[in-house]
Design a protein that fits this description.
Helices cover 17% and strands 21% of the residues. The protein has 115 residues and is α+β, with helices and mostly antiparallel strands. The chain has a domain of 71 residues. The chain has a four-stranded antiparallel β-sheet with strand order 1-2-3-4. A hairpin with a 2-residue loop joins strand 2 and strand 3.
Length: 115
């Protein structure tokens, strides 16, 4: 059933075809040891100070499967040595390429929190 004009104006009465904001995101495959002691790969999505993870890329786009990254994961990503960070082609990143993942002060920039 198509959305009527009345329904559209109820939510956005004056704005149409307008970009409200944009943000760069980083999506990575991360190997970790889970709480059961098993090594597994997860997908990590990061934008500003927000970090989420899911078991698969499809899960990253599903609200039921995507989870907020726990504090231990954020801290572990922030302290990951440069020689354990890799480029898309499998080569090790140099110390200057490897960037920390600790939350940074974004000033007045909005958080792009996924619902």
């Amino acid at each position: 059933m198509p959305i009527t004009e009345t329904q559209k104006t109820k939510f956005h009465p004056t704005s149409r075809n307008k970009v409200l904001a944009a943000a760069d995101v980083k999506i990575q495959q991360v190997q970790l040891i889970d709480k059961r002691g098993q090594v597994r790969s997860v997908v990590v999505w990061r934008c500003g100070t927000d970090m989420f993870y899911a078991n698969t890329m499809d899960g990253m786009f599903d609200n039921a499967q995507r989870k907020t990254a726990p504090t231990w994961l954020v801290e572990a990503m922030g302290s990951l040595e440069a020689d354990k960070q890799f480029n898309f082609d499998g080569t090790t990143k140099s110390a200057t390429e490897a960037k920390p993942y600790l939350p940074v002060d974004e000033g007045d920039a909005p958080d792009f929190v996924q619902g």
